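Hey, resending since the last one bounced:
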Amino acid sequence: MGRVTARRPAIRLATDTATRRPETLVVEEPLEIRLNGSPLTVTMRTPGSDVELAHGFLLTEGVIGGRADVRTARYCLGDGEDGLNTYNVLDVTLAPDVPMPATDPRRNFYTTSSCGVCGKASLDAVTTSSRHSPGDDPTVVTTDNLLALPDRLRSAQKVFASTGGLHAAGLFTADGDLLVAREDIGRHNAVDKVIGWALEQNRIPSLGTVLMVSGRASFELTQKAVMAGIPIMAAVSAPSSLAVDLATQSGLTLVGFLRGDSMNVYSRGDRVKQ
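The structure tokens again:
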């Protein structure tokens, strides 16, 4: 398995000093996801939890709807120049009754670590229909429980503590208990890993949960929450206008600027109780 961190030399410059020293950096490597043996996507990610990443990606792209839709997921052998396994190619085999996604040249699945949808060629290709709408979920969360989530997520960011270079996502109960946390160089990958975990635990749709992300609430991350049937999403930073529009249409509670002792609630505020 690829390493999560690597050491690289750096020169630290201060007002009157220059110090040469090694720095701990987060690893970024490509992961090719194949579907039934055919290449589907390449994403730049931090190695680790790759099967969860693939499962989450396939769910949030509408390819699968649950754990039963996947037969196997395994690394392809001998992809390195020396014949050794790079653990950078993962082949997912679908269940026999699950159709392959339609090949559409307008829909480019290539994703970078900073943006998961910017390779897609049209707005129609960005929007995906969910099988698990969160609108009917009666979950209620208190402001006290929400305000505790950023610190709880931060305490689970072990690699970020040594590198300062990772995004994080965590899935919590409405009472504030952490179910799972994942880190990745790409914010969308971190969310896919969390959703992939939920899929493997047969927790899709993820009723009664809160998705907490360490950065902003983009349209893409909001759509992933909707696709997984998560009723509440909270972010440390701001949402985009399109994220708020999608949350409102889907019945998702979207919370932004969750930091210190305050927050903004942009949609379905009836789920948040003081």
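The CA atoms of residues 99 and 244 lie 32 Å apart.

Sorry for the duplicate.
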